[in-house]
Design goal:
238 residues; mainly alpha; Arc Repressor Mutant, subunit A; 3 strands; 78% helix
Length: 238
């Protein structure tokens, strides 16, 4: 039997490190990415960087630029909307399922509330500290809690590819589209509806939560697109 290659784990760590830098604004949209520089910065060989960048490209987070290599993508409004449409369906289904289980099992509801409150407290602390990456991590943990509580074992796995893309989007939401305090208030409202055992209300609050984030980012990206178009017009008129 062959020994297991540990490189996939290293690739995932490199992937997460590059994505974190993109989410935190250290690698803004349009940044040209050089594998050798990233490898030196992370203290690894080029191989896991090359593998991580291939995954980031598949996830739409970086893109090829002719013969110049790869760069961090600009957020695409239509692509973002499509991702949020799918996530809304998944999150609504998860909240409804979790609430139905809570309705039928008081002990389950109490345990879910305890775990959910712990995540809410951690998220609110991250907001107070201005820690964007921690906010994203706790946000993902909250939604994974609801996925797991839904009783549907396929929800979390189905949502995961979209979360890889939306981690980057969420950093834009937190910085420009919606006050972080409002986001965590919405999480608390979702948890309350779920643990109260109200499937219809839980689903409605989950859908509203996703819709507000998408609408806020839509407005932010729309303003940026208008500004870019105006700048291009000025350049063309010179």
């Amino acid at each position: 039997m062959k020994a297991i290659d540990a490189s996939p784990k290293l690739t995932e760590q490199v992937y997460r490190a590059i994505l974190d830098d993109i989410c935190d604004g250290e690698l803004p949209a349009g940044t040209h990415l050089v594998q050798e520089q990233l490898a030196d910065r992370l203290g690894v060989s080029r191989q896991p960087v090359q593998q991580a960048m291939a995954l980031l490209k598949v996830d739409g987070i970086i893109e090829a630029v002719g013969k110049r290599g790869l760069r961090v993508t600009h957020l695409d409004l239509d692509l973002m909307r499509h991702r949020y449409e799918i996530r809304a369906v998944l999150d609504g289904l998860a909240a409804r399922g979790a609430a139905a289980r809570a309705h039928d099992d008081a002990a389950f509801a109490a345990d879910l509330e305890r775990r959910g409150r712990a995540i809410l407290a951690a998220g609110e602390a991250a907001v107070a500290a201005g820690a964007t990456l921690d906010q994203i991590g706790h946000d993902e943990a909250f939604h994974n809690l609801i996925y797991d509580a839904s009783g549907n074992p396929f929800l979390a796995a189905t949502a995961q590819p979209h979360w890889r893309f939306l981690r980057r989007v969420m950093s834009e939401v937190l910085r420009y589209a919606e006050p972080p305090q409002d986001i965590w208030r919405q999480h608390a409202e979702i948890l309350q509806a779920v643990t109260a055992g109200n499937p219809a209300l839980a689903e409605a609050r989950a859908l509203e939560h996703i819709g507000r984030a998408a609408d806020g980012l839509d407005r932010h990206l729309g303003r940026n697109a208008d500004a870019d178009a105006a700048a291009n017009a000025r350049e063309t008129g010179r």
